[in-house]
Amino acid sequence: MRSLLLLALGLFPAAAAQNIYVRVSPAVTKGIHGTDAFPTIQNALDHHPWPGPGGRVIIEIAPGVYHERLDITQNHPNITLLGMGKSPDDVVITNSLNAHQAGGTFFTETVEVDGDGFEADNVTFENSAGNTGQAVAVVVRADRVVFKHCRFLGYQDTLFADFGRQYYVDSYIEGAVDFLFGNASAVFDHDELHVSGPGALTAQSRTSPAQTTGYVILNSRVTSDIPAGKRQQIWLGRPWRPYSRVVFLRTWLPADVVPAGWNSWRDPRNEKTTWYGEYDDLGPGARPSDRAPWAHQITAAEAKTFEPRVFLAGSDGWNPIAAAAQLP
Description:
Elements: H1 2-9, E1 20-24, E2 37-38, H2 41-47, E3 57-61, E4 64-67, E5 70-72, E6 79-83, E7 91-95, H3 99-102, E8 111-113, E9 119-121, E10 124-127, E11 138-141, E12 145-148, E13 151-153, E14 159-163, E15 165-169, E16 172-175, E17 180-182, E18 185-189, E19 192-195, E20 199-204, E21 214-218, E22 221-224, E23 234-237, E24 245-249, E25 275-279, E26 296-297, H4 300-304, H5 308-311, H6 320-325
Parallel strand pairs: 1-2, 1-3, 3-6, 4-7, 5-8, 6-9, 7-10, 8-11, 9-12, 10-13, 11-14, 12-15, 13-16, 14-17, 15-18, 16-19, 17-20, 18-21, 19-22, 20-23, 21-24, 24-25, 25-26
């Protein structure tokens, strides 16, 4: 009777908030189905118990190098990959596959994220194919995605941020040619973008001025180890599609940045449709007076519209900073 009364009054804790924790470790040698310990990350993704509505599946990954290709599917929302090492260097998910081997860029990824609400913390994602053409480490086609304290390692096309709202904070992203590309609404906050060869940092692909997509790099740092004979060959961006939109805010830029900053991809028509902007950047590569005349030096008021809580809010008022703060 008391239980029925409590249920009627709504006093039982809501099952909807219950999270599921599972563990992945190289030390696990058997058992997949119906357990909370798995030998590979993909095993955990395929066979984890299900939480209640609104709950998360938190996959705690022991230190190690995991030679895997992962697929986080649309019917697996609210997945968290949590590296249990001291730093993201301790948990590495890696594969080596380039476009020539795979039959195209979009078959090369080490990790594909299609499930909304995905999070990762303290993990390295790598495509180790090197300077052999397009080779994607991570592709993200999902909404309300957070990467915190992560590393993304590749050369050409490292991170395909292609759909949905995405937030990358306190992370390290390495590449050379178009290593941030796609048509997501993505903010890169307090990150290091490391350039390992000549090329464009971004190849954002907005296809219409009506789309709210674009890349925002703020409070971050661009570094490089380009050889001495190839200096000043870093472009901030070039338009994969004609309405490409990228903004750098309060970001440190090295001397290796081309003074013009932005590349039209050899098509003057793109100069009329792209939207590239900067505000209050720092470092020897921050040279507003030398920038391409069709790019923008934006105002403080305009810069506020690209802050994470505004740019990524959407119709549901998503707060990516609060979501990231809930991670360790």
